[in-house]
Design brief:
By secondary structure, the protein is α/β, with parallel strands linked by helices. The protein contains 23 helices and 32 strands. Strands 6, 7, 8, 9, 10, 11, 12, 13, 14, 15, 16 and 17 form a 12-stranded mixed beta sheet that branches. Strands 24, 25, 26, 27, 28, 29, 30, 31 and 32 form a 9-stranded mixed beta sheet that branches.
Length: 767
């Protein structure tokens, strides 16, 4: 006698070939019924013999498509209705969404094989895709994920594509972006004067790139600027036109073999490069390569990615065009360029040619940037290939939102026990970025089907997020910056109980009104206690110190050594005599010289004093270049330092500065001095933590490491080693950046605890 079951599957189950997979399983086990997409996931009705149903359920989990992820499934027995066959039925668009929005993935090997087969009707077609690869998030207008609700709706399928789309046994069954040269998007090349090439557009683009031209390329999530990465003249021209003098440029290599020629790529890095997510991977640069010298000036690393769209694969060639600069086309501080008219307008003086296509990008998305650090994945930017995939928590975070920070902004939503981090927005410093933020925030909120009743924001009163949230009718929860960093790392590792947190960061607003950024905390999502920090020193000129790090050095030297300190500063910065006199006056009178104790500014000051980087041209350059010159495999001797034992433990680096001044006077090797400074940061942090642990003997010896300075490979590696040797269990970030790109995760968890506490208090009062 036939039995029937209803299976509800939630997770990443739309846009990944899940329905045709279910269809094929049903045929294998001789089952009848239906499979349907809806706003809640995928619903399956299956009828057949009990044994066959059990085999079907087992295979459903064990053999799911590689891009799918089943987060939750529910099976209930239902009355048999006498289905005669199994079919895929029309999607149901009613109800509240609990969908996991599909992510964009690199073109798969099956599609590449077809694209390179002269006998295949999609030979050299730059938009080939199937259920296991291609655009998803970037083309979705509405949910559920069906073709009429994507930017592919303007491309009616030809008969050949339609047959594949409707054939449940075909790899492209219900692949929403399915297309071919007859019916799909097309590519064209346009020069800045309007001349157009439609036929052989890609070949012409290759020809111009090899001749030294700069080409704006419309990709999956926005425009890139490309040039021949082996042509120093072309790279310098790109830098000049884009006004990007030193910031490192990302490279796209034709294949892994070419990437291995320019970088020292280990097995894990190779896996990242060839993964469906296909991020930019920061790798050690080989000393002698074909790369133009100005690709990453002053750095020993280079950001490499492999082609992730068919268009990229067709454009690069191992023999004739093996390496391209592939850098985002937006101006510094502006949102990613993705609309054609705006790209033509803003890039007309930068690009010689535009390689474009007529498939609209609905949601712009930057490339993800990662590095393999000390045996783990370290996100510098979580974007394409990962957004908007959810994280999961055991806490109730439903109807909560978090707006992130001012820099490297990423917002977040909570839905039930899911955590959704939005796309990388950037720095909220102008109206265009704020509009971009609001647009993407509203789209994701609508897709998730939630209306936040509380929103977490950074407590810094001048952050733009306060201006955004004041227009909304919601409860606002201010969160201290470094507490959010700490809790983000805790949640990233599933920690709920109180622990220590070392936060090495750039700048964050402190509860005492000073600038924090080198913090030892203790607590969890419900509270925190500040145990120690770097001794405060003045930042003469405030935020100007970020772009002129010698100012920070002057502030530190003046604070520690008074008149003698300013003499040290004059000796090291002789061309700043007039400015140093002004800074001295500002510091002594307390005019625009806020007190700060931050790891980021400390790195900047030492970098400037060692003349490694006096004039940074991009955020973090001084610290990055200082970290790049040291030998990460070496263990350096720390400089002397002191820990002041007051109510709070305070790291005093006066002795370190005296030793550095002495080393500079003796013309010591800057690499050695930079290495010793790095080890001092580690040694001082560990000693502060040891002393704090003695004060908190009853506390578990667990510690999380967070903050933007934890991207520093040497510092993080040595901290983990030294803290483990001191019997601490050490946790670092796993799924979100340690920098401000992960801040919203911590904010959301803190907001959840505050709401829970307020609900409990309200219920208690009612009783």
């Amino acid at each position: 006698m036939a039995k029937a079951i209803k299976v509800t599957v939630r997770g990443r189950v739309q846009g990944v070939g899940f329905r045709p997979f279910v269809f094929q399983l049903a045929h294998r086990y001789r089952l009848a019924g239906t499979v349907q997409n809806n706003m809640d996931g995928v619903t399956i009705i299956a009828e057949g013999e009990e044994k066959q149903l059990q085999l079907f359920l087992h295979a459903l989990i064990q053999e799911a498509p590689r891009l799918s992820r089943i987060d939750e499934w529910n099976v209930v027995a239902i009355p048999a209705q006498g289905w005669q066959q199994f079919s895929i039925i029309k999607s149901e668009r009613k109800g509240t969404s609990s969908l996991v929005i599909p992510i964009d993935t690199a073109v798969c090997d099956d599609c590449l094989q077809e694209m390179n087969d002269p006998a295949d009707f999609r030979y050299r077609y730059p938009f080939i895709n199937c259920t296991q690869c291609g655009p998803r998030y970037t083309i979705i207008e509405q949910l559920p994920y069906d073709r009429p609700y994507t930017s592919m709706k303007t491309f009616p399928m030809c008969n050949r594509c339609q047959k594949e789309y409707e054939n449940p046994l075909n790899r492209r069954h219900h692949a929403q972006p399915i297309a071919c040269p007859t019916c799909g998007p097309s590519v064209m090349l346009i020069d800045r004067h309007g001349q157009t090439w439609k036929e052989e557009a890609i070949e012409k683009a290759q020809e111009f790139l090899m001749a030294g031209a700069i080409v704006a390329i419309k990709g999956l999530g926005g425009y890139h600027l490309a040039c021949d990465a082996t042509n120093e003249t072309a790279v310098r021209q790109l830098r000049k036109r884009k006004q990007r003098p030193t910031r490192p440029l990302a490279i796209m290599a034709a294949n892994l073999a070419v990437a291995n020629q320019i970088g020292e790529i280990n097995e894990k890095e190779a896996q990242l490069l060839t993964s469906p997510e296909a991020p930019i991977v920061i790798v050690k640069r080989k000393p002698f390569t074909l790369l133009a010298p100005s690709i990453s000036p002053g750095l020993t690393t280079v950001g490499v990615m492999l082609p992730y769209t068919p268009l990229h694969h067709l454009l690069l060639d191992e023999q004739t065009l093996p390496l391209l600069v592939m850098t985002s086309a937006n101006r510094s501080g502006m949102p990613i360029l993705y609309e054609d008219a705006q790209a033509f307008s803003e890039l007309n003086e930068i690009a010689d040619y535009f390689l474009v296509h007529n498939r609209s990008i609905v949601h712009p998305l930057d490339d993800s940037v990662v590095q393999w650090q000390n045996g783990r994945l370290d996100f510098l930017r979580r974007a394409r290939g990962f957004v908007p995939d959810p994280l999961f928590t055991t806490e109730s975070v439903h109807a909560l939102a978090a707006l992130g920070g001012q820099q490297k902004n990423v917002f977040a939503f909570g839905r039930n026990q899911q955590l959704f981090l939005g796309p990388h927005i950037g720095d909220l410093q102008n109206i265009d970025v704020i509009h971009h933020f609001l647009r993407e925030y509203e789209h994701l909120r609508t897709w998730l089907g939630i209306q936040p009743d509380a929103v977490a924001v950074d407590m810094h009163p001048n952050y733009e997020t306060w201006n955004i949230v004041k227009e909304w009718d919601v409860s606002v929860i201010p969160v201290q910056h470094h507490h959010a960093h700490m809790v983000a790392c805790m949640e990233d590792n599933g920690l709920k109980e109180s622990c220590f947190g070392l936060i090495l960061d750039g700048t964050g607003y402190g509860e005492d009104g000073n600038v924090w950024g080198f913090e030892l905390l203790y607590g969890d999502a419900s509270y925190y206690e500040r145990l120690g920090h770097l001794l405060y020193t003045p930042l003469p000129g405030g935020e100007k110190c970020i772009k002129e790090p010698w100012r920070t050095a002057v502030g530190m030297l003046g604070y520690y050594f008074g008149e003698k300190g300013y003499e040290y500063a004059l000796q090291r910065f002789p061309d700043k005599q007039y400015e140093i006199a002004i800074l001295k006056n500002m510091i002594e009178k307390g005019i625009n010289a806020p007190l700060a104790g931050t790891c980021g500014r400390l790195f900047d000051a030492v970098s400037a004093f060692l003349h490694v980087c006096l004039h940074p041209m991009y955020d973090g350059e001084a610290a990055i270049r200082l970290s790049e010159i040291i030998d990460e495999e070496n263990v350096y001797e720390p400089y002397p330092f002191a820990i002041r034992e007051n109510r709070l433990l305070e790291i005093d680096l006066a002795d370190m500065w005296l030793a550095i001044i002495e080393d500079v006077s003796r013309n010591e090797n800057p690499v050695q001095m930079a290495g010793r400074f790095h080890e001092t940061v580690v040694a001082a942090s560990v000693e502060m933590i040891r002393r704090a642990a003695k004060r908190h003997r009853s506390s578990e010896r667990r510690i999380v490491l967070s903050g933007g300075s934890m991207h520093n490979r040497y510092v993080t590696k040595r901290l983990v080693e030294q803290l483990q040797a001191a019997a601490f269990t050490v946790y670092t970030h796993q799924k979100v950046p340690c920098s401000d790109g992960g801040l919203a995760l911590g904010q959301l968890m803190i907001a959840a605890k505050r709401r829970e506490r307020e609900v409990c208090a309200s219920e208690f009062q009612q009783k």
